[in-house]
Sequence to fold (816 residues):
Amino acid sequence: MAQAHVANPAPTVDARTAGQRLVNQWLAHVHTAHERGQPVAYIFVMGNAVEILRSFGFELVFPEINSLQTGVRKMAPDFLAKAEDYGFSPDVCSYVKADVGLMLSDMQHPSGTRIPKPDIAIASSLCNVYIKWAEIWERHFGTPAFVLDIPGKRFATWRPLPGTAQYDADTRWVEGQLRDLIAQCERITGTKFDPDRLAEVESNVNEMIRLWVEILQLNQRRPAPYNSMLDGLTYIGVLNAWRGTPEGVEYMRLLRDEVAGKLARGEGRVAEERFRLIFSGTPCYVNMRRLVELFESHGGVFAASDYLTYAAGGLDSSGLFYDPSRPLESLAEVTTLASQLGLSNHFFSHQTLAQQVKEYGADGIVYHGIKSCRTVATSMADNREYVTSRYGLPTLYIESDLIDPRYWSDAQIKNRVDAFFEVLEQRALVKGGD
Amino acid sequence: MALEIETSLTEILARCHELSLRQRIPDDEAGMAIGYFPVYFPEEIVHAAGLRPHALYGGGNHIEVRYADARIGSFVCSICRSTTELGLNGSLKGLGGFFAQPICDAAKHMAGIWGRNFPQQDPQILALPQNVNSPASARYVYDEYQRLRGILAEKVGHEITDEAIRASVRVYNENRRLQRALYAIKRDDPARLSTVEAYLLIRAGTRLRREEHNELLRAALRLLPERRVRQMDKPRVIFLGGFCEQPPLEMIETIEDVCFIVDDDLLIGQRWITEDVPEEGDPVWALAESYIERSAASPVQYDARKRKEDVLMRMLHEAHAEATIISAAKFCEPGLDDQLAQSRWLDQQDIPYLVLEFEEKMTSFEQMAMQVETFAESLLFE
Fold:
């Protein structure tokens, strides 16, 4: 467990303000990228080879963030309707449909940003919808997809060790593809790959991840200084958009100091923390504040969430750091390991969730099944059954969607949350009486 | 003579039908059947180990889902649900192994579900790549196939030799040739062999040793040229949407009542390798390289050389088809995405098409029959 870092007494800018500024700055950069002659890459939050793109000077567009922003800004229904009118099935991922809605809106995003067309689009195999999504871009923009296949875990206890033939096979495969990607970036930008620049980006990522892991671990303490599924969502937004940059490092340092300061002062996210919970699944961006409120009104805080691992690149999974002295080889190794230890964990997450319960002193797990996201949610109910029967943990399963408000049923979810807390209260009572 | 031929064919097809419905692993195969989830699996390596590959194509519309609904999200396709049901209701307890593949996000979960519920079957993912366009692809597939070879060798307790795999490749090459011959008849003379019949003949192979399946196909192919055929005037169409979850047979019959399906992607994993696999050299490399270079297409594999619209146009052209039925399984995101892309493409090309959605558990086809009849009439009288 991390020790609370002694914070600077009075930082001039709080992390929230700094984060907002960085997000605005990033969107402004995106808006003007082509005017400034900067190439644009469309990438996803899992398995994106951002380090290579950054080293070539690409401006980064995260279509998942564009889509979730339509939800946060309560504009998703307009975009979803456009995609469904175009012919997309209600059963297709709502992120994809919001993005199609954006394409059909001449790329005019509700944030005020006009999203530029991609010069390159990278879809990793960590979510198969990424690949289908990239095929849509191929048709719409004429930009060929670069599919980065990153082999994940083959089974729950899969742990390839450096030096084994299996480790070599998987990392050799990823490295081969990264070399293909470099060649493609060279063609697009007309510049030669610079390993020193890649090493520099990796050093920044290392520092960001070191701080990020510290921030995650600080929430193992009581009371939890932040809510993983509210504050944490802002944190990873900045982490993704500024990954590998000095600004990103500075932000993470400011954030770490702020979180550590709260901890040192005993300031919890909720006034009276009564229950600590693990959240498994993706957020419901149209109603996340409401969802969190339903839990916090009972004194429940989401101390941790697997979302903060897989939506932030997975590098926090097992102390993974780049070796900038061999930047490309190390990128291949860490990308593969991040996939196998963190990003492909959805399919086998029962053990890591149980582990998180221990590390964070949690009282239970909340599973949030998402209609849009089969990557995360397909077998959650089975996972829950296993965790409940094997470890005797209280669990709750609720369903809604990432950004489609049609799948949010407030009364039903409230009833289930209330009933879950009755169970937790009952257990606390029994425990207290022992 | 004609009656005898028809009787023999009927007997073969009845056997195929019985095999296609068979879900339980026979007692004498307990532990020897290696289950795999669609689409493609390098069966030759399993065969060379002396084991029997057991393709899992869900429960069809003949099982009642009692347990799986409580284990799988409400937004997940039927094949994942019914396969889980077959596990939970004990039908698949005789499997000696279980492999899922990263064809889609739901399918990847099957390895996790299996691991939590049936760990004794050593369930895992065979990580076939989604990038087949890199110079490094074949080597990666080769490495993954060698991993599979190692797992199976450990299971049977002896090495799986190159010669054994080469022998299996020869058996499977024969099978591929026979399957291609079936599809050629269906394409060139569709009144002689219906799609339902071709489907049953091919699906039977998922429950037999491949040598036995070869015999069965040879027998059918001997009889088919002698079959008495009544020529009919029906539009020639392509059927798409059967690459993973299988549409109910009644749905195919409904379409065939009024159309000839002259090409399709039904059970495409059984026909994934489109030419003979080289029988010389390293057989595992030959299989890996064939996966990359001599393979079909489906919505769940990205290949920059096989744009979905181009694949469809080639199928239409080669089968001399005039229209397409583009189907997708309910909740199948890759299928639904391609369905839209292809239908918009066909609009641009002014090629008629009909969009249908199915679920394996469907039992009522009246409404679909009406849609298909109207479509066929529009083609005939256009």
Q: What stands out?
A: Chain A touches chain B through 63 residues (CB under 8 Å). Residues 165-189 of chain A form the longest helix (25 residues).
